[in-house]
Structures are given as structure tokens and as C-alpha cells.
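TICKET #2291
ISSUE: user wants both folds in one file
ATTACHMENT 1:
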Amino acid sequence: YSSFILQVSASGLFELRLKYFKNDYGRDSEGHCCSGQSDPTTGKCIGGCKTRFRVCLKHYQAKIDTTSQCTYGDVVTPILGENSVNLTDTQNFQNKGFTNPIQFAFNFAWPGTFTLIVEALHDTNNSANARSSNLLIQRLSVQQVLEVSPEWKTNKSESQYTWLEYDFRVTCDPHYYGSGCANLCRPRDDQFGHYTCSETGEIICLSGWQGNYCDKPKCAKGCEHGHCDKPNQCM
């Protein structure tokens, strides 16, 4: 299994940061003890859940289908703890091969909407195969509008026995701009152009240059019958 997905030619990144998962009673989504054992006197579960997470990111669905393909990415984490897990302690999980936030790269214009499914799972037999032998503890599913921004959106999902707190955001890769991360602008100062980029990815000519790609020099003032190879020159 992989802890994150990256593509070299991506124009942006959807990031999910898992923060806190609470399951004090050690029960699955149907209320049964993950361990299968309970105290006959108190009814409390004996033993805990071996908790891992599955994250599915896909295109916007008005009616969420939890069984269809995860078109933007599908990630299953290693077992990260038992009943309740503080997922903000990132150094503690690095040796397990888990990177938080979980990242989904995209190499298309961000559509501004998405569907996210996060499942907390109990591994019933500590399997090396992360996609088998999993029992559902909690499932959250959201579909919404999300603009490109460096700001994290904080959310909390609660069920009868559990809750999960998490953040997400969408950011553009370096040199990509705009609401969909589709405007490419790489600053340059060479024979092909002399410019920087605005916050929206528009070309801004360096001083002394003009033209669509800022590759034409502005000649010296009053140079009406001459030409120039560089700014403020007149030949």
C-alpha cells in the first residue's frame, strides 16, 4: 500500500490531514466489539480495534456511491493505532510508512468540486494485505465546492460511537495559478522572454521589455529611426 500518490506533471494538490480519531468503546460501525470479546458484567469491550484508514477521492457525485472507482486516488494507510489515535503526531508514524497529510496530485484543471470518502477500518487479522480482512468502524462521505486556497478547511464527522476530525485544502503547484491551477507561468530572463508572474499567473514584463512574452526591448527614448537589441539602446 502507499501512503500518498504523486504525479510528476501535476498542476495541483488535494491534501487531507487526519487529526484525531476517537473510538473509546472499541466498537465497529454496527456496535460490535472489534475484538469480539466483552466483559459479561459491564458489557464493555475487552481489547481494542486495530485502526487504519482508507481515503477515496473522486469527482463530484450528487448521490455518493461508495463502491464506484476513486477517480482521483485511493489510499489505504497502515495500522496507525488502537481505539483512539492522535494523528497529529506525525513523527510517530513515519516509521510506519504513513505521511500526513495524505496527498492526491492532479494534472488537470481543478473543477472546484469533489467527493471524499474516509473509512476507519479494523484489521481483523493484522494482515499485511491492507485491502483485505477489514471491518468498518466509521465512514464519512462529503461532496462539496472547494476553491484553491492555502487555508485548511477543518471538519468533524461523528457517528454513534466514534468521531474523526480532519482538514483538507487544494493548492496549486509552483508556477501554476488561477482557480483551477490551469494557468502556467514560469518567470524567466533569457532570449525567450524577460518577465515575472502575477498572483493570477499573468506575465509581467521586467523593466525595459515589452511584447506578449516580453521579448522585445524598449529602445532608448527618442530612438525613432534606429533599433535596439537590449533596453535603452539605440543603433
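ATTACHMENT 2:
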Amino acid sequence: MASSDLIYQYKTTCNKLKKIQRVLIKRFGPSVSEVSDEFGALANSFNEAFQPEYAAKCYIGQSKCEKLIGNDTGEVEALLRAARSFRTAHAKQERLRVSNIAHAYHEGAFRCYTQALSRLPDKSVIGAAIIRELKEISPSVELTSDFSSPCHRIADLERSAEESLAGRDYVGAFEKLSEIYDDVTERKCEALYQDVMRRIEVSRLLLLCLLQLPPSVRYDHKFIERYSTVGDAGRESSRPDGGQPVPLPEELVFLLQSLVVSCQAKDVESLTAVRDEMCERQDLTSSQQALLKEVVAKYSK
């Protein structure tokens, strides 16, 4: 269907909504549920036509219909779809490298997010998730949620650590990652967060290699000692709290041991070889690969 036809249908559906809002006795006006379904179908069509900005407007119309029939859940869901469609429209502009990108789409997303939040209780898990999405487009917004869980805390700390890494605040990043490590081990729930613990294990080790902290101020000198010998011996010792080391793939453990030993020996050639091999691995994040390059650069001076 042509874009002009879709826009004509959108305007027609908007007029139906206006008629519903004007009619005092609702049974004499169009069916609210049917108009809501029309907006939803139009949104899908606009998405298929790669016009997310119009899809967002349709979802807003759908949210108004859901509000009229008292469906709070449907209203919130439609508002969230609208917010995400606005963000997709903004991303589309960025991909197309549009000059002087307007912030109207992010502003639209912001309004939809805040409107959805106003329909939810303070201690709602959905509200906490919405605030997290909202802060992705507006980091300075002063909104918090009373809802808290280990999963949300870990996600927030990891995001904060990534921001510290981007700002080259390596000490701050190490402290935040160590906070996650402590939180998980104190709760004795490592099995529930194995992927998180693996990421933190690698990132903390890379940060220690980069920071070159003396043993007197290291967070846990035995942590890096476990990687100071190439082979199984370096992984046999338990953590100071009696727990077992974080399980990592054997090939990665060997590379991390080689990295630490090369750093201690200040062997730049070996460091470069380890970096090249590690950067080819799929289980390293982009920030970890960047840290790895920083380590080599530091020892190459």
C-alpha cells in the first residue's frame, strides 16, 4: 500500500477517535475497540513501510482508545510501543546521516515514557524497566523507582561501569564491577549469574593489568595471582572467601594467564600476540577488546 494511502487511513482513523471523544453517549459513536484495532493494524503497516514515526502516532492513538475503555495495561503497552517507534525513527535519521537531526522524536519518546510511568505504581517492575529505557535517551533525568532486585542492581552497575570505561575512569569501572562481584558472592547465587560473573572476571583482570596497582592497594591480590602461572596451577586455588574460581573456557583461561605473565615480564611481543589472539574470540565484549588494546599500549611505551 502506498504511503499516501496509509496516511489517508491514519487521518480517517484519527477522525473516528475525535468523534468518539465528542459523542456524549458512546453507543451512538464508533466502537472504541474497533478504532483501537485499526490504529494497531495501521502501526504494523507503517512499520512494514519503514515509517516508524507514523507508527508511533498510531500507537499514541491506540493508547487513547485504551484509556477511553479503562484498559490501563493496554494503554501502557501502546505508549511503550509509541516510545520505541519514536526511538527507531531517530535511529533511522542517524543511519541516513541526516544533517541537523532534530530531537523531536526523542522528545516524543520521552513524553510517551513519562505518560506510561504515570499509569503505573511506584514499585512496579515495569516502571523500573521504563525508567531504564528513558535514561538511555535522557541520562540526566531525575527519575528513580522504589522497585529493586539483584538483577536490576547488576544491570545498573554494569551500565555505570561501561560509562566509566568510556570516560577512561578505569578505577571507577573496577570498583563498580567489584561491587557486583561482592554482591553476587555474598548472596551465594553465582549459579544464577554465570554469564555476568564471567564478564566481570575478564574485565576486572584486564583492568588490574592496565592499572598496575601495587599489592597493598589491590582489591584482592589473590585474584590476579590465580592467573600468574600458565597452566592448571594458576587456577587451582580457591577464592579468599572459600568459593571456587569463576569457570571460564580453558582456551580463554590460558590466554588470560599468558596475558598476565607477559605483563609481569613486560614482554611486549608476547602481549601483542596474546592481544591478537584474544581479539578474535567471540566471547569478548567490545569494551574488553578496547581494554586489551589499552593494556598493550601501556606496556609498549
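RESOLUTION: both attachments delivered.
EXTRA DETAIL ON ATTACHMENT 2: The mean pLDDT is 83.
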